[in-house]
Specification:
By secondary structure, the protein is of the alpha+beta class. It has 13 helices and 49 strands.
Length: about 850
């Protein structure tokens, strides 16, 4: 070598980047890639006593334990020696699109597995190939999960590859990027990287990951031979085997001028926010279904004298969902067979989790007195605030219904609309939509469906539909919506409360945009200037004109594809509901929904996992989760969605990428049917004043309606002796105030204590404000303690509790986790139970949210 690099030190760590699913499937990963990689590394460790190796992804360790126990045993031995380093995460997950609760579960489940199965504590997060980027809330999430260090690969800010990365709440992790790859060779390339590193940073040392990656491999004989040659050359860099933790602690932390970085790390590959849209949609749906099932399974456990909680099955479901959040699967950058496997796994998990939820709701319903006239309907609320929203339920009736109306137990009528009635065998089935008012927080409310003839008269209509030659107008108490018959466009959404138009003259449209061939890939979205607005509908028709909802359906043909849009206004709801069905057969083209708002000088804000971030409104494709918003201080508009992640904002126009057609990895990616649900929601003030965060949660976790069986609500002999009371017709288990503190987890502790396991609750502050939150439970507390997100107790003076109420102080953007026990028997939480000797004196079991 010509240049003298003897002053430079390469700190060497062997590595094998293993993609769980990419151009190959999971079976090949387990039975070829991981098996052969780990065998080779273990053999090398015998030959080279100083060699160290790092491997993340606890899912791989579980697979080795199941299929190759001898390899697993040897790995455990090397872990115990400190030469095989375990990095955290159930998988190397995409660090933009999973929900914040899913990100926490990656570390909760991964760290727990490492501790219990491998005998090691994990303090290192590993994300060298998260090409979609890293959200700005990640330091907050990681620190709460016991993670102090992060090795990342993409989005190095301003040629600064290492820094204290500070989350929005002030939490910090020490972040480091190798910058020049995670699978380098020990040879001439290593010398070139050392020179580039020195030029970029001015440093004379770096952490160097070597070994074959992607399809596995790890350190091999050629690396050891190259290392020997370098050590024999007096002008070559000094090479030292180490561990990532030792490098962080002994090299980085000795620097006195480590910079602090605040904000997100953009990976640059924003096309991955919208590729393979169906897989992304099912991930989102299962994340929220799991949260709802956990909550009601926990609720139901407190109604049983011998409690049961489906811990094993919920754990299996979570591990499957987390597995497919791998950074090549969820972003849509794998081949078609991978997505067939994912779909099969999702089918299995969905069936299992829906069964868990149904069982839990049945446990609750069994304790309600539903006797009497009218068909009992129970509406369940999985969220921690009282809600008044529409619910759709199919009723089984013994005779043909005559204009059904749903009423609460006091006889007050709810706006009700019947969509279809059919006879099957001995029964009639009616699909009914109604406004379920004042459903308590994390609870339920009992309603009854009656034939309107029983009461006489009809409920007053607040929802109006007006037809003219050129337009159709829908209006409720909040909005007046105008749809152009000739184009199908929503040309006006007028806010009646503030007396202002919320859309510009361009209105709401669907846009087909050509992507640049050769530039657009599954990773990269490269849009051309060819924008074609869909404006020649096949049909524009009113398909629903009821007291609850009015809907206009607009159908378009676009080239070989079919697009059907339903524009719906609901009584008592201040948002415009949009459901889109797309049958898509285009290549090198994407479809966007575009809302040209009338907001002047608005700031663009995008929801991130357990937070939100303001970005320039420059038209760039960026990440968002359940909502985006454009607001000034006086007024704004939010776009809520149930399944998409790619958005752009420019000049007040909010656009959502609906579907793409990029064939580089999967030739038929996104071909076929897609169904989306999104809401245009104008509001006074900014997104905080508009309560956009909770509206985004509500869209993704709707109220649940179930027809109840007629019963007394007393289950003998399992109820307490001498107690013969049913639960009240309206009940809530837990409520959180104010609006800027949101519950994300309500479940049993991971540690399996059996029926006596404590409950774990988690909250986050949404508005960036110091907040004193009030949390009210359905029974007095016996114990409340703060933990980290791994459910380990921490010292804290940020909360206090008395009886059934807790007061918790939040820093801006803070995430907090608590463990609790209730002070009365689980089966006795609800109002009306007689006091027993083993009940806490003065217990106040239950409350109604509202």
């Amino acid at each position: 070598m010509s240049e003298d690099l003897s002053h430079f030190t390469l700190y060497l760590v062997g590595h094998a980047h293993i993609d769980l699913g990419y151009r190959w499937r999971w079976g090949e990963t387990v039975h070829r890639i991981a098996r052969d990689t780990f065998r080779g590394v273990l053999r090398m460790m015998e030959e080279v006593p100083e060699l160290t190796f790092v491997q993340s992804q606890l899912a791989l360790y579980e697979a080795m334990k199941q299929h190759y126990p001898d390899i697993y045993r040897q790995i455990r031995e090397r872990v115990a020696e400190g030469r095989w380093i375990v990095a955290d995460g159930w998988v190397e997950y995409d660090q933009t699109m999973p929900g914040g609760e899913s990100m926490i579960r990656q570390h909760l489940i991964g760290s727990r597995y490492a501790r219990e199965e491998l005998g090691c504590e994990v303090t290192l997060a590993w994300a060298p190939d998260a090409f979609s980027g890293h959200v700005h809330t990640l330091p907050t999430i990681l620190q709460g999960c016991g993670i102090e260090r992060l090795l990342y690969g993409r989005g190095v800010p301003d040629d600064t590859p290492y820094f204290w990365w500070e989350g929005p709440d002030g939490s910090r992790v020490l972040a480091y990027s190798p910058s020049y790859g995670y699978s380098a060779d020990l040879g001439p390339r290593a010398l070139e990287i050392a020179r580039m590193w020195e030029e970029m940073t001015g440093d004379h040392e770096m952490l160097f990951l070597y070994g074959r990656g992607d399809h596995g491999g790890g350190p091999r004989e050629a690396d050891i031979e190259a290392l020997a040659a370098q050590r024999a050359d007096p002008r070559a860099p000094r090479c030292v085997h180490t561990t990532p933790q030792a490098f962080f602690n002994e090299v980085l932390l000795k620097k006195t001028d480590l910079p602090v970085y605040r904000g997100e790390l953009g990976g640059g590959f924003t096309g991955s926010l919208s590729s393979e849209g169906r897989a992304k949609q099912r991930n989102r749906q299962l994340e929220h279904l799991l949260l709802a099932a956990e909550r009601f399974a926990t609720f139901a456990m407190f109604l049983q004298r011998k409690p049961a909680y489906p811990r094993v099955y919920l754990g299996e479901a979570w591990r499957t969902v987390l597995h497919h959040q791998f950074h090549d699967e969820l972003p849509g950058t794998s081949r078609a067979p991978v997505y067939r496997d994912i779909d099969a796994d999702y089918d299995r998990v969905e069936t299992m989790v829906r069964g868990i939820l149904d069982d839990a709701l049945a446990e609750v319903a069994a304790r309600l007195d539903t006797r009497g006239e009218g068909v009992p309907v129970v509406v369940y609320n999985p969220l921690a605030w009282a809600r008044s929203e529409q619910v759709r339920v199919t009723l089984r009736l013994s005779e043909e219904p005559r204009r059904l109306v749903v009423r609460d137990t006091a006889g007050e009528a709810m706006p009700t609309q019947t969509f279809s009635v059919r006879q099957e065998g001995a029964f009639w089935y009616a699909s009914v939509l109604f406004m379920a008012r004042d459903v308590p927080s994390l609870g339920y409310r009992l309603f009854r469906a009656w034939s309107e003839a029983r009461w006489g008269g009809t409920t007053a209509r607040a929802l109006l539909v007006t037809e003219a030659r050129d337009v159709i107008i829908l209006q409720n108490g909040y909005l007046l919506v105008t749809i152009d018959r000739h184009t199908g466009h929503v040309v006006s959404v007028f806010d009646k409360l503030t007396d202002r138009e919320t859309l510009s003259s361009r209105g709401y449209t669907l846009q087909a945009i050509a992507e640049v061939p050769g530039q657009s890939t599954a990773w990269i979205i490269a849009l051309s200037d060819e924008v074609e607005t869909l404006r020649q509908p096949e049909s524009v028709e009113i398909v629903s004109d009821g007291p609850v909802q009015a809907t206009v359906r607009v159908a378009y043909r676009y080239r070989d594809s079919y697009v059907e849009q339903e524009v719906t206004l609901t009584e008592g709801v201040p948002g415009l509901d949009l459901r889109l069905h797309v049958d898509w057969y285009e290549r090198d083209c994407c479809l966007k929904a575009a809302f040209s708002t009338a907001v002047q000088g608005g700031r663009a804000t995008f929801e991130a996992p357990l937070g939100a971030i303001e970005r320039p409104a420059d038209g760039a494709e960026v990440l968002a989760q359940r909502w985006i918003d454009v607001s000034n201080e006086r007024y704004g508009a939010s776009l809520l969605n149930d399944c998409r992640y790619g958005f752009d904002v420019q000049e007040g126009c909010m656009r959502m990428t609906i579907v793409r057609g990029i064939p580089d990895l999967d030739p038929e990616a996104d071909v076929g049917e897609h169904d989306l649900h999104y809401v245009y929601y104008p509001h006074a003030g900014d997104w905080r004043a508009g309560d956009t965060v909770r509206r985004g949660w509500a869209l993704n976790i709707p109220l649940i309606g179930r027809q109840g069986l007629r019963r007394a609500g007393v289950i003998a002999p399992w109820i307490a002796a001498g107690v013969n009371h049913a639960m009240p017709p309206s009940f809530g288990f837990l409520e959180v105030l104010p609006e800027n503190v949101v519950l994300t987890a309500f479940k049993l502790e991971e540690e399996d204590w059996g029926p006596g396991s404590p409950v774990v609750v988690r909250f986050y502050e949404t508005a960036g404000q110091e907040t004193e939150a009030q949390v009210r439970f359905a029974a007095p507390l016996m114990m409340l303690e703060e933990t980290n997100h791994l459910e380990e107790q921490i010292e804290s003076d940020a909360f206090q509790w008395e009886e059934e109420r807790a007061t918790i102080r939040f820093r801006p953007h803070e995430i907090k986790t608590f463990r609790l026990r209730l002070a009365i028997p689980a089966f006795a939480i609800y109002r009306g139970l007689a006091h027993r000797d083993d009940m806490a004196p003065g217990a106040v079991p239950g409350f109604e949210g509202g």
